[in-house]
Design goal:
Helix 10 (177-190) runs antiparallel to helix 11. The longest helix has 24 residues, at 8-31. The protein is an all-alpha fold. The protein has twelve helices and no strands. Helices cover 70% and strands 0% of the residues. This is Lipoprotein. It comes from Massilia polaris.
Length: 229
């Protein structure tokens, strides 16, 4: 913040006050211990994993996830490692690549109720699922009437959360035509090649089933452009 002065006395007073404020600020910062390095390292690595995975950079993604898992494992806390495994599972679901989240399953007994509910959500086990245990942006997705989730999906502002929700809807058999379009364009807008190609494939199969040759060709042109060279 700039300090406006009128004379030498005021300048001196302002300098003194500023010195005192800086001293207090430094003392305040020094009184708070710095967060453990593993937290920031793991967070950065998990973000790097998701970004690389969605862009189709598999080898980089695997390296980043291994780094994140190693940092978190240094705490000796299975529940935290379980969370990291859910991040990996969610990124796969966002790309329509489904499995039973084996990395999480091995640690499920040490996970929280919310984490176990999220794993059920990601793996399509929605029967009896307590939506209140899910992250807020996903609760309405589960509660929506099957086939009427389009508005719910569009209401999710975070692109990755929206893609995860779309993947979960697809696996649960509740995806609608407008949801497919929204998921496709969300992936396109973010430059996420891996889910984009998967959703374009879904749209193309629908066009083929409808006998819409022009749409099939249009989608194929998009696929050809998006494929890595």
């Amino acid at each position: 913040m700039a300090i406006c002065t009128r004379d030498g006395a005021e300048t001196s007073m302002n300098k003194t006050a500023l010195t005192v404020l800086v001293a207090f600020a430094v003392a305040g910062c020094a009184s708070k211990p710095a967060p453990p390095a593993w937290k920031s390292n793991a967070s950065d690595a998990l973000k790097g994993y998701s970004d690389a995975w969605l862009k189709g950079n598999t080898s980089i993604a695997e390296s980043e996830f291994a780094r994140a898992r190693s940092e978190i494992a240094s705490t000796g806390r299975p529940d935290l490692v379980a969370f990291a495994e859910l991040v990996r599972c969610a990124s796969r679901v966002a790309s329509l690549e489904y499995d039973e989240c084996p990395g999480f399953a091995a640690l499920a007994s040490d996970a929280t109720a919310g984490e176990r509910a999220y794993a059920d959500y990601l793996t399509g086990r929605w029967q009896g699922l307590d939506a209140a245990l899910l992250p807020e942006q996903h609760q309405a997705v589960v509660r929506a009437v099957p086939g009427a989730a389009t508005g719910v999906l569009a209401a999710i502002q975070d692109p990755l959360s929206r893609m995860v929700a779309a993947g979960a809807l697809m696996q649960a058999g509740r995806i609608g035509p407008a949801d497919i379009v929204l998921a496709t364009e969300t992936a396109s807008g973010q430059g996420w090649r891996r889910p984009l190609l998967m959703w374009l494939g879904v749209a193309q199969k629908r066009a083929q089933a409808a006998g819409d040759a022009a749409e099939v060709s249009r989608i194929q042109r998009r696929i050809d452009v998006a494929l890595p060279r």
